[in-house]
Amino acid sequence: MTRIVSNDEQSNIESNNQSIVSSSAPTTRTYKVYRRRFAILAIFCICTLTSGFQWIEYVIIQNIIVRYYNESLPGDAEAKNNAVTWTSLSYMVTYIPLMFPAMWLLDRYGLKITCSTGAFLNCVGAIVKCFSVDTNLWWITFTGQMICACAQSFTLGIPPYLAATWFSSDSVSTVTAIAVFGNQVGIALGFLIPTILVPDVPDISLIGERLRILYYAVAFVCLVCFISMIIVFRPRPPTPPSRAQEMALQTSEQNYLQTLKRLLVNRWFLLLLISYGLNTGVFYSISTLLNPVYMHYFEKTDHASKYAGTIGTLMIVGGIFGSLVGGYVLDKSKAYKTVTFIVYLLSFLSMVLFTSTVHLHEYVAFVTMTIVGFFMTGYLPVGFEYGVEITYPENEAISSSLLNVSAQIFGLCTTQFQEYLIFKQHKVLISNVMLCIILIVGGVITLLIRSPLRRQNAQHGGDNLLENNVACAVVSDTNAIVNA
């Protein structure tokens, strides 16, 4: 049966059709960013700075720590060195299981609760170490270090999430680099300050006094950072800072386990997991064992222990500039895969340069390790942002945390194998060649990634087709009713 439609009814239907099309068409919207974002970024950088500092503060003066805590360290000389090495490795071991509850906490309760938990644990660990200044109290030192290691799980994967949540789309890569930069500054200071403050002298009491100063200063900064975070941090801004972030909030399924499942079946992301883990694992290994590597070549020179800290600082300072340059280039070019591969290739070449010239002179090592740091540390934010691009609209913190899990696993394995080559086989050169081979493998894997840049597509209107299709479908259904 066909129903006759009056002229008034026809006019109303046509008006409704136009309204539907108009409402479903893409609209221009102005997105707002808030001044609070700078305070949040600054406090977060200080928090990760103290975390990075405590990660490396013992291994860079490993020979001094072994001598000071000798009474309470286990076994022979090799076992004592291994115990100190584990102050760094503990960060890798604890991160792997604790990342999952940490990211669940972020998914459920947001940025403030998650970061505050990390800042609180970091503060508690630093305070515990204040009670360990005695030659027979190594177990207290290590307990405090383990608590600080647990704290890292709640902050290490945050940078891309913080950048996307609080900053505009044209600055997320730079902000991610700055957030990573905080951790790198902490590592640089961790290389430098202990070697300057704690002298390599026979006087054990003087070493203890300097360690006390170190512990109290770090604990004070951690406490101030935790209090500031409680006051200033917010889970997210009142309104999204960009179109991509707004779409991610609307379309991303808020289910932590489902997000993990989707990420772990994304073949391009799995390739990035491996390549990122290999590169960052090499960085962790050479940072942890920089003292014995350097001492192997220059132990007989004056101030060898202090110079080991200097070379580590130069590596991180180079990396800070590398991180900022990498973030800036990504924001301007959006060529994520190209930039990632180029940085990877240059990391390999710089490691080859270091390996082949480190024996020539200590000042040559200063220059080559700065170059290594520029590219290898500069890779960290680049890899983070590439991971966000190929997994959008998934939670940025979860994807970056999985990248960090891969880095910790490869870092742990690489460090243990390099430690075996250095302390048991006395083959320092072979251990450095091994690191070069690992970087070759990671670079080849990076070339295999073929994923589209999903976040860029969303930011520049990749969903228009879907919106227009929906509009056409609604209009078609309305016309069908009229003709029935």
Commentary on this structure:
The protein is mainly alpha-helical and 484 residues long. It has 2 domains: 34-240 and 262-452, Up-down Bundle (Growth Hormone, Chain: A), CATH 1.20.1250; 453-484. Helix content is 79%, strand content 0%. The chain is built from 21 helices and no strands. The protein has helices at residues 7-24, 36-56, 62-68, 77-109, 111-129, 138-152, 159-166, 172-197, 204-232, 243-251, 256-264, 267-288, 290-298, 304-333, 336-357, 362-376, 379-391, 396-424, 428-447, 454-459, 464-483. Helix 2 runs antiparallel to helix 9 (204-232) and helix 15 (336-357) packs antiparallel against helix 16. Residues 1-7, 13-26 and 462-484 have low confidence and may be disordered.
Portion in helices: over 70%
Q: Give the number of DSSP strands.
A: 0
The CATH architecture designation of the largest domain is Up-down Bundle
Oligomer: single chain
Work out the count of structural domains. Answer: 2
Tell me the major beta sheet: none
Backbone CA Rg = 26 Å
Overall mean pLDDT score?
82
Transmembrane segments: 38-65, 85-106, 113-131, 137-162, 174-193, 213-233, 268-287, 307-330, 339-357, 363-382, 429-449
InterPro entries: FLVCR1-2_SLC49-like, MFS, MFS_dom, MFS_trans_sf
Pfam family, one: MFS_1
GO cellular component, one term: membrane
